[in-house]
Amino acid sequence: MANATLKPAWRLPGAALGADATLPFWRREPGRAQWLAIALVSLTAMFAAWWAATRPDGLVSALFLPPPIDVWEAFVRLWSRPYLGSTLGQHIGSSLQIVIGGWLLAGLVGLPLGIAMGWWKKARWIAFPIFQILRPVPPLAWIPLAILWLGIGNSARVFVVFIAAIVPWVMNSMQAVYSIDGLLVRAALTLGASDSQILTRVVCRTALPTLVAGARIALGNAWTTLVAAELLAATAGLGYIALNASRTLEMGILLVAMAIIGALGALFSIGMHLLTRWVAPWARAGVAA
Amino acid sequence: MSEVATAATTAPLVAGSAPARRPALYGAAAIGALLFAWWLATAIPGFVPSRVLPSPLDVVARFAALIAEPFSGATLFGHALVSLQRWGIGVLLAIGLGLPLGVALAWLPPLRAVVTPAFELLRYIPPFAWVPIAVLWFGASTTTQAAIVFIAAFPACIINTQLAVSQIDPILVRAARTLGAGWATSLARVVLPVAAPTIFTGLRIAFSNGWMALVGAELVVGKQGLGFLISQGQINDSAATILVGMTTIGVLGTLIDLVLQRVQRIALPWKTAIARPLE
Questions:
Q1: What is the distance between the alpha carbons of residues A123 and B10, in angstroms, rounded to a whole number?
Q2: Structural domain boundaries of chain B?
Q3: Which phi-psi region, left, alpha or beta, contains residue A58 (left: φ > 0; alpha: ψ -120 to 50)?
Q4: pLDDT digits (tens, 9 = 90+) for A32-48
């Protein structure tokens, strides 16, 4: 969860290390074109190995890993015909609806709460210890309680997603507001700014990158948690498909569900990175929560 | 200007000048009030049914009962031990593979180009999405749980190790080389000590990710463990059991991290990043 940011390999700071022509070739950073070529060959080799190993006379049983063509066929079939009551599009829609709903709800509560905790000492003194106590409990551990309280409907899943997302929302906004340079605030005061002007024009503006980073981490947590919640309490959704496919040994469907879960996770991460760059081009990273 | 602005202007600059006991008092009061509200809500008959939220006293009683007698196959300690064992296997495997691979990826750039596509394809799949396929591959066994822990912990190991080694100032390595050190010596005596604090941070993340993932895996499959305990609590309609299980999971997770912080301070005293505590 935390700190899971890997920069594209060609942009790692150590890339400079490879510029040294005295190094042997295996220590030298490949150029951009070389890098892409190697990556492409590696990717092709991977798929070729998958294809070769899963042929009827291959090493791997189709029950362990299905051939690529099976996965594609399962995808096409899922898309056009309903599986477990809905088409693939509807399952994706159900998952997205809950993850976005829970995430936004957590933001609606967590963002103002976090800003208040960063701004007012007493709010922090009161609320922070409560979060410190709740934080070590994994959001997933709330699932049984959520089911007991709310049944296996949508509300149980929204609740669990909310729990998973609210911690990064609160922690990042608190940290962002709390760690603002006091000189900035004093400068604004000297220039005659009022309290509300300082909060909106100085504090929230300066805190923006960390706030957005918190939103990104929250969305990642929300998605991870939703998948787990769908394994346990759902009547639709991608995790629900995956678990059912595993029980009925439909490996193609299982891999399609996993691939879509991964693709959407990647999409969220990339989308939030773009958003960060758009609203706060000067942004770096957030607090891992 | 009002009190609001003063608080904000002075807080970051003179942190700690307020009597140190005051924040703790506020915190204790808040937690105490919360516990009291919980007790009050369950003490008034018919206000909150105990099926939904048992009173704090019931939870303590349930805790004592779970320690004393087995529930769903083991006592609380038994379940915790099983969980810790699965967690240990998965995390040690992730470290054993992730550390060398992370160093190799940072040290040998062409290898990074080979591995990155596969890594990028797989890393966005959350650990729990592997549970259904892991069950098929390994059955409902300890291997499945350990595999999920491994999947959750491995990326943190590899990413942080790679980052730590890549960030080293190349001049340090060149200086070692100039002084006659071979590649192996520079790796062992220069690169690893400098990278160690960041690597250790990665390990801490790996340990905690693994612990969280284990709980999820145990909820879905298995016959023992803390995750299993709370799912049994749900099936038996016993909110008290769930709360005891959740607390145990949280406390153990915190203890694990405290121990690791301690280890980090003792083993790597030269550059242990200690976050500025919040006032």
A1: 16
A2: 20-49, 63-267
A3: beta
A4: 888 899 999 999 999 99
Overall CATH class of domain B63-267: mainly alpha
In whole angstroms, give the CA distance from residue B139 to residue B131. 10
Q: Residue A190: CB partners within 8 Å, gap ≥ 6?
A: none
| Long-range own/partner contacts, residues A264-272 (CB < 8 A, 24 or more apart) | A264/A92, A264/A95, A264/A96, A264/A223, A264/A238, A265/A220, A265/A223, A265/A224, A265/B124, A265/B125, A265/B126, A266/B124, A268/A219, A268/A220, A268/A223, A269/A216, A269/A220, A269/B124, A272/A212, A272/A215, A272/A216, A272/A219
Min Cα distance B249 → chain A (Å) is 6
Q: How many CB atoms lie within 10 A of CB B222?
A: 21
Q: Confirm if B276 and A176 have CB atoms less than 8 A apart.
A: no
What was the pLDDT predicted at A283?
A: 60
B109 contacts in A (CB within 8 Å)?
A: 9, 15, 18, 27-30
Helix (H) or strand (E) holding A150: helix A143-150
A144/B2 touch (CB, cutoff 8 Å), yes or no: no
Query: What is the C-alpha to C-alpha distance for residues A107 and A114, in angstroms, rounded to an integer?
Result: 10
Q: In sequence order, what are the residues at sequence separation of 6 or more whose Cβ sits closer than 8 angstroms to the Cβ of residue A70?
A: A62, A251, A252
Q: Do B86 and B142 form a contact (C-beta atoms < 8 A)? A: yes
Indicate which of B9, B103, B105, B173 best probes the interface with A, i.e. most A CBs within 10 Å of its own CB. B9
Q: Give the bridge partners for A86, in sequence order.
A: A83
The predicted pLDDT at position A21 comes to 61
**CA-wise closest residue to A225 among B212, B244, B134, B208:** B212
Which residues 194-233 in chain B show a CB within 8 A of chain A?
201-202, 205, 209, 211-212, 215-216, 219-220, 227, 230-231, 233
Q: Name the DSSP class of A235.
A: S
- In order, the DSSP letters of B146-195 are HHHHHHHHHHHHHHHHHHHHHTS-HHHHHHHHHTT--HHHIIIIIIHHHH
Fold classification of A76-279 is MetI-like fold (1.10.3720)
Asked if A140 and B245 come within 8 Å (Cβ–Cβ), the reply is no
B227-to-A11, B66, B69, B149, B243 alpha-carbon distances in Å: 40, 15, 18, 13, 12
CA–CA gap between residue B127 and residue B210 (Å, rounded): 9
User: What pTM does this model have?
Assistant: 0.85
Distance CA(A176)–CA(A171), nearest Å, equals: 8
All residues of chain B having their beta carbon less than 8 Å from the beta carbon of residue A122 are 26
Summarised one tens digit per residue, pLDDT across range A121-180 is 899 999 999 998 888 899 999 999 999 998 888 899 999 999 999 999 999 999 989 888
| Per-residue tokens: A194 | 């009022």
Q: In chain A, what are the domain boundaries? A: 15-47, 76-279
Nearest CA in chain B to A260: B125
CB B97 within 8 A of CB B265: no
Q: In which band, very low, low, confident or very high, does the pLDDT at A203 lie, cut at 50, 70 and 90?
A: confident
In Å, how far from its chain's centre is CA A250?
A: 27
